Amino acid sequence: MPVYRDEAVVLRTHKLGEADRIVTLLTRQHGKVRAVAKGVRRTGSKFGSRLEPFMVADLQLYEGRSLDVVTQAESLGSYGALITQDYSAYTAANAMVEAADKLTEAEGSLQQYLLLVGALRSLSRHEHGASLTLDSYLLRALALAGWAPSFQDCARCGKVGEHTAVVVQLGGVVCDECAPPGTPRIAGSTVALLGALLAGDWTFAKASSDRDRGQASGIIAAYTQWHLERGLRSLPHVSRETTAQ
């Protein structure tokens, strides 16, 4: 059977039999892959903790009929242990890998892979608040998937301006003429924060207020669930910071 090597992020795992485990991977070159790690649950397994969620590894696999098989695993990023020590980071990471699982298919995307690896690395190092990191990741992952929101020009007619009406079904902020009756309004500072999270402007994002972060998180959650249809089961469990970080 063909053997191949690739880098991968472990998205989730499931027990198989008494000692094996099925791992769902987002790989650098082969998209999303489901594979069996044989004997991984035995004490002294050669894989150790390298095939746990949030870990990044260099893998050797061979192709099977329905599931590939992991034959070698070398750690590239031991993010799992650091993330699971912090509840906010852990809940954010769970939402990230669930989103990556839903947004990627067998053909994969190098950009989605690199974005997820960077977000998990940032969470493990506590570079930014976990909630901010998650919100930025979700916006950028959706943009890579073809659902880039607009937080500057009107998402419907393209009118330039500072718009404060948000309609997630239309793709972001809309002008007064395009806003349906009863459309909620948000502060201009919240719109600016949404734009900063999409662009990765961490200086601006980290200086934002708790109020703006709360509004932005709610809009991002609604936008994510709209495009993913059934939404993310882990998102309601995310621990949101109550003080600016």
UniProtKB/TrEMBL annotation:
Keyword NADP in record: no
Gene3D superfamilies assigned: Nucleic acid-binding proteins, Recombination protein O, C-terminal domain, Recombination protein O, zinc-binding domain
The keyword DNA damage belongs to this UniProt entry's keyword annotation: yes
Domain DNA replication/recombination mediator RecO N-terminal: 1-79
Signal peptide: none
Pfam families according to UniProt: RecO_C, RecO_N
Lineage top rank: taxon: Bacteria
InterPro entries assigned: ARFGAP/RecO, DNA_rep/recomb_RecO_N, NA-bd_OB-fold, RecO, RecO_C
Keywords of the record: DNA damage, DNA recombination, DNA repair
GO biological process, one term: double-strand break repair
GO terms under cellular component: bacterial nucleoid
Function: Involved in DNA repair and RecF pathway recombination.
Assigned protein family: Belongs to the RecO family.
Protein name (Swiss-Prot/TrEMBL): DNA repair protein RecO
Lineage, uppermost ranks: Bacteria, Bacillati, Actinomycetota, Actinomycetes, Micrococcales
